[in-house]
Design brief:
- This protein has about 375 residues and is α/β, with parallel strands linked by helices.
- The protein folds into 2 domains: about 190 residues, Glycogen Phosphorylase B (Rossmann fold, 3-Layer(aba) Sandwich); about 160 residues, Glycogen Phosphorylase B (Rossmann fold, 3-Layer(aba) Sandwich).
- The protein is about 40% helix and about 15% strand.
- Helix 14 packs across helix 16.
- The mean pLDDT is about 90.
Length: about 375
């Protein structure tokens, strides 16, 4: 079977890297050829969220749009079209309509975020609502033969639209994301968060908690991918790094306690419910205990009080982090339990089986 995957972003984006690229070889072993065509190239992706590059980004988006039209030719050779979120970052679902209605190719839609929820971009503001065409996702759900979903919340929304929903969580290769020897001696513990500019406000919501904890405990805060040059937390030593693909695994391995706050009051509660919980999988894969807000996919992944703690209010965040900061044995036990849980329930090969089944289901269903 030949599958043409149209991704919104290049491999530097987690959605492309972990929901498409890492499945190329496993799917090949299952007699499925997956060819990935990203809408943005790596250079344009790096510039996308810089307002001072807006004109350059606009020109790049138009060029990418024209390239997408040419790629319709590639769809003629494919048995199934796999759309990761959307074929283009702006405008109506023209490409998808041409492939499903014009070329009559079955489509599998992959949703790892609640892209059906309208939100205002922290970079482009109200302009993003004009260009994003948020009703597009509902159209794609209606046209898709199968929709693969990052968590149950997304799957419930898809099912409510009468479509076939299949839950496939975002996972990592546990042979790559694996534990390393933990630090010994008197070195300060590292509380860590790795994310994006759009999710950084979630981390900011617990800064008061971290300041209070710093009055009692010696630790430093490692932040990766905030999209800001300067980040300060009163009383806390902060290491603020840009995200780097080559350093991704090592950054997760360097953390002693992971942070996974999700403030549902920001953007939209419905948007937060669509988060796939992927950071939880990454923390557990490298054997790092963590504290998370039980929202969206993070509420479904792992075993509370065994692999991680849940916290919603600031006082809960304080108590949970206090426990981990003060109890080395608990950190070690939780980290080991998390690693075992990911290996047992979120293996790459198991998810490859699910994706292969969804792709074959789409081909068979369209043929009936």
């Amino acid at each position: 079977m030949k599958v043409l995957a149209l991704a919104s972003y290049p491999v530097e984006a987690a959605a492309t890297r972990f929901r498409l690229q890492q499945f190329v070889e496993p799917l090949a072993a299952r007699d499925i050829t997956l060819e990935i065509h990203p809408f943005l190239n790596s250079k344009l992706f790096q510039e996308l969220y810089h307002r001072d590059a807006m004109m350059k980004v606009a020109a790049g988006l138009l060029k990418s749009g024209l390239k997408r039209l040419v790629e319709i030719v590639s769809a003629r050779k494919a048995d199934v079209i796999l759309i990761q979120r959307e074929a283009m970052l702006f405008g109506p679902p023209l490409i998808e309509w041409m492939m499903t209605h014009g070329l009559k190719r079955p489509m599998v839609l992959d949703l790892d975020d609640a892209t059906y929820v309208s939100y205002e971009s922290p970079t482009y503001g109200a302009l993003s609502k004009t260009l994003k065409w948020f009703s597009k996702t509902d159209d794609l759900i209606r046209w898709a033969t199968v929709v693969t979903c990052g968590n149950r919340s997304i799957a419930e929304y898809v099912s409510s639209k009468g479509a076939r929903a299949r839950v496939i969580p975002t996972v990592v290769d546990t042979e790559v994301f694996k534990p390393v020897s933990r630090r010994v001696g008197d070195a300060p513990l590292v509380l860590g968060w790795i994310g994006t500019h759009s999710t950084f406000p979630y981390l900011e919501s617990i800064f008061p908690v971290l300041s209070s904890l710093a009055e009692r405990f010696d630790f430093h805060l490692k932040i990766v991918g905030a999209g800001r040059r300067d980040v300060a937390v009163p009383g806390v030593q902060v290491e603020n790094l840009t995200w780097d693909l080559e350093r991704e695994v090592a950054d997760f391995q360097s953390i002693d306690i992971g942070l996974y706050p999700i403030d549902a009051s920001l953007y939209s509660g419905k948007w937060a419910q669509g988060k796939s919980g992927f950071k939880a999988v990454q923390y557990m894969a490298v054997g790092v205990p963590f504290v998370a807000t039980p929202v969206g996919g993070s509420a479904e992944i792992g075993a509370p009080d065994v692999t991680h703690f849940f916290a919603s209010q600031n006082d809960e965040w304080y108590r949970r982090l206090e426990c981990l900061l003060s109890d080395e044995g608990r950190r070690r036990e939780m980290g080991a339990a998390g690693r075992a849980h990911v290996v047992a329930h979120y293996g790459l090969q198991e998810q490859a089986d699910k994706l292969a089944a969804a792709l074959r289901e789409a081909l068979t269903a369209r043929g009936n």
